Amino acid sequence: MEGQEAQSLAGGRSASTIPSLFFKEEKVKPGERLSHLTLTVLYYEEVPMKIQKAVSISLLLFALLLGLAACGGSSSTSSSADDSLPATDTAVPTIPPDIIVVLKDTKIVSTMTTFKPGLPYRIVLSNQGNKDHQFAVLSASLNVTHLTATQLQQAALAYVHDVAPGKSAIIDLTFPESTVGVSYEMASYPKSSSQGGVILPIAVKQ
Question: How many domains are there within the chain?
């Protein structure tokens, strides 16, 4: 009976869930009913606890929102980075390295002797001989025995009229598609002559 009356006066709250500070007991006078045992519930003591729960829930929701925002930002950044990448089917042009060609009185030495059509090559000539040299890149089938320097220049894919001993020269050369499978050579001749030269066979392949 006492438990029921206490529960009713506490607004349906059980005594076990309300702190003991929330109750005060009045003495029962002789002959009075037990109902004179009153419970005073200090509801205002529960307010801080409710506020703490509300704040905790709010912080939890705020943390969840921050987590979602971070995930969204990472996805957006990743997408932007992916969009900036070049297409996989786009060919990146490759520039061949410079080709060093050394001219000597009895031979020609080159760092490359096989070439591809359509690629821009830069040939760096260096005369390490004791004579002046002409230099030409031309078809191996061409008979240059009786050609003048002007005719040799017209027949060659690349031509340098004179490279003095200890001097250098630069030639930019691109082999056309028509040169594929055709025998070519690098040739070096004495100045103002197309006779008595030295040659180095080269090839043009796909």
Answer: 2
